[in-house]
């Protein structure tokens, strides 16, 4: 019998677009631009689609037809889906810089083979991060030959900061929460002449975050191509909204009126998207935003992600940390399907589904014929935190050793 802590807050979205409305946000995100991202990312060393894992035992226990989980833990060896976004945005930024300097649009191969090393070695990219995005930006900077500085806020673990530094980036720790570190990165970039590669957007800053989100759409397109029939429900983790918006946009454009119901899941301490839906406008959550779901500890919606979610989302959920921890242990145990290494933020969508009450499931139209899709956006990006929650190291789980 599944026993999950209940959803803390459930907010149906009063602004959701009707089922017959065509996808309206192609100027921000589109499947055509997604094809461009897939073509480029497909040339990077180590590229391979990530698994789409069926969880039949969990589906039976949950009373639905199927549950599928897109396992992003192995993406480019970086542990999360963020490898797709930050590095892609770095590549796009550097290609634009080369085009400006040389008067022609270069091919991505010219980045990979170091042809423009002399031009790029004085370029510095920077960003703020909870861990995974900064790791992707640092990896992209190393792969393409520019310098990198990453800002981490007070509660980012040493393990996550160390993983970024190991890729050759300079790491600067700031006071305050994630949103404070975003502001500090922007301030320092202006002062030093660096280029911000952020996964969130604000007035006057949208091109790079759009590239980040378009990179994320690669995992959505992989999933669409692997599914025999579309899901009926998407459960997507929130944060600033980039992942959720990228996936929701791809499925809306692909399936039109048959698009799945989209549910956005956030930590109860950092539910800026849910509160924005309730207020009918972007809302900022103040405070330290402390949660084990470190990648979702964001208090301000992304300016370009929010309008997509405002139109696409069916509902918004806030969940307690205990729900994420329980989902991590469940996936590691092998009771849901094959044992999976799933990090704290990576399980948020699944944890949101498993925490619903009977009344909330009914409100979302979830029943025996429902097909649930979740995106496991990270693996054990903080190995010690993972071991403390699950009780075993990630390597043991990954080897398929089922807990007894």
From TrEMBL:
Pfam family, one: PALP
Domain of life (superkingdom): Bacteria
GO molecular function annotation: diaminopropionate ammonia-lyase activity
Entry keyword set: Lyase, Pyridoxal phosphate
EC number: 4.3.1.15
Spans through the membrane: none
PANTHER family: DIAMINOPROPIONATE AMMONIA-LYASE, PTHR42937
NCBIfam families: diampropi_NH3ly, PRK08206.1
The protein's name: Diaminopropionate ammonia-lyase
The organism of origin for this protein: Roseomonas gilardii
Classification lineage: Bacteria, Pseudomonadati, Pseudomonadota, Alphaproteobacteria, Acetobacterales
